[in-house]
Amino acid sequence: MRLPLRDVEEVSPISSGRSRAALYTALIAIVAALGGLLFGFDTGVIAGAMLFIVPDFNLGPAQQGLVVSAVTFGALFGALAGGASCDKIGRRRTNIVAGMSFIAGSLLSATAPNVDVLIGSRVVIGLGIGLTSVAAPMYIAELSPARNRGKLVSLFQLAITAGILVSYLVDRALVPEHAWRWMLGLAIIPGALLVLGMFAMPESPRWLLKTGLEKAARRALALVRSPDEIDAEVREIHDDLEHNQPAGWTELLMPGLRPALLAGVGLAVLQQVTGINTIIYYAPQIFQQAGLNSAATALAATIGIGVINLLSTLVAIWLVDRIGRKPLLLAGLVGMTASLAALGVALRFGSSIGVNPDLIAPLTVGFIGLYIVCFAFSLGPVVWLMISEIFPNRARARAAAISTAANWTANFFVSLSFPVLREMMGPSLWFLYAAMGVAAFVFIGGYVPETKGKSLEDISRQWRTEPAGIVERH
Ligand code: BGC
């Protein structure tokens, strides 16, 4: 008797090989994504901790700014160093170094005897964040099969949002004890998990082949692919390495790589200049100004923002390999731009167009919530994903490092300038971020390629061979 086809598949070694490989790949993605958890936690936790650090160390405004922005500064250098390090010592070891920086920085900041040590420790944590924001998405992308790479790399963003939310909750729980040292020190736990976990994980097969270690690459692939997939993938990677010469920093600007680099840097900067961190870093203040008078209500609304940020990222995880990257990006941008414009109108013209003043606070929370939903299913995860997948194997580490450094630079300027611009422009500032949303829509719609379902090598080939679709302009 013939078995129905479905039953044959269920018992075949290929299908059982695939499900074992899928489980292993998911485990790898989860361990690497711990870097994202630390990224989110360490950028979020400082808001609450500052309430007590300021009086304890008797800090003036300039020192306060340094304590907060030291992480961004460290992340910028961490990202640049991450490119060279991913090339030299590999993706896996770079993730381990990132984990060690988190542990060292957290330990140091929790025990800092004075503000100088505290600032230094925040730079060390920043280095970890920069390293991980280059190495983790790249590592996951290089080990994932094309069919669900989007979902797996998006776990990194899910972990960032989880880290931000946990930091808000930890801050709130420890506020009564004034326990800022615990707030900062708790990051040691995920840091240690990241280091221990990564020790047990394989190196990226693409880095191993680039380094000439084919046997090790095949061993790594054997863990994450079924046996019938390995030969074809090794051939494809070899072919890509042959066609793309090794790229130093200057070659990145040559015509062959420039279009991809422009897409990566463009995406990275646009993720920031559309204003996300004005909300993530300043939400309680924005809510208080809009009329949520008590600090407790403003904080509760902020935690609400953290929750919807995390939940809406799940939408991307569900859809990114089904409908693709560009539809998510474009739909998200429409929603973000509309909410920013609506927020600007409500705050700037609300009273003159007869909006009930009692409605301004709930409208603000509503529009900001909608903006976060739209960011979280689009620019949040998809930008990190695309930075990890649009560059050819030979250039990926350095090009991703430049794009990531551009992301941190833009983040630094946007979050630094927000209080000053708000002072100068008032609510009209939201129209500026909305205008950036329009620019992002035009750039992504017209310039950025779709990468859904393609192997990393297909994407690399596409930049070489499809001038019209991928804009190889000479
Ligand atoms: C961005 C961060 C931002 C976070 C918010 C990330 O994708 O890179 O700057 O704070 O999303 O969820």
Helices and strands, with pairings:
Blueprint: H1 5-11, H2 13-44, H3 46-57, H4 61-88, H5 91-110, H6 115-143, H7 149-174, H8 180-185, H9 188-199, H10 205-210, H11 214-224, H12 227-243, H13 258-273, H14 276-289, H15 295-319, H16 325-349, H17 360-376, H18 379-389, H19 396-425, H20 429-447, H21 456-465, H22 467-470
Could you describe the 3D structure shown?
By secondary structure, this protein is an all-alpha fold. Helices cover 80% and strands 0% of the residues. The protein has helices at 5-11, 13-44, 46-57, 61-88, 91-110, 115-143, 149-174, 180-185, 188-199, 205-210, 214-224, 227-243, 258-273, 276-289, 295-319, 325-349, 360-376, 379-389, 396-425, 429-447, 456-465, 467-470. Helix 2 packs parallel to helix 7 (149-174), helix 6 crosses helix 18 and helix 16 (325-349) packs antiparallel against helix 17 (360-376). 51% of the residues are buried. Mean pLDDT is 90; it is low at 1-11 and 467-474.
Nutshell version of this structure?
The protein is mainly α.
Quick tags:
22 helices, mainly alpha, single chain, globular
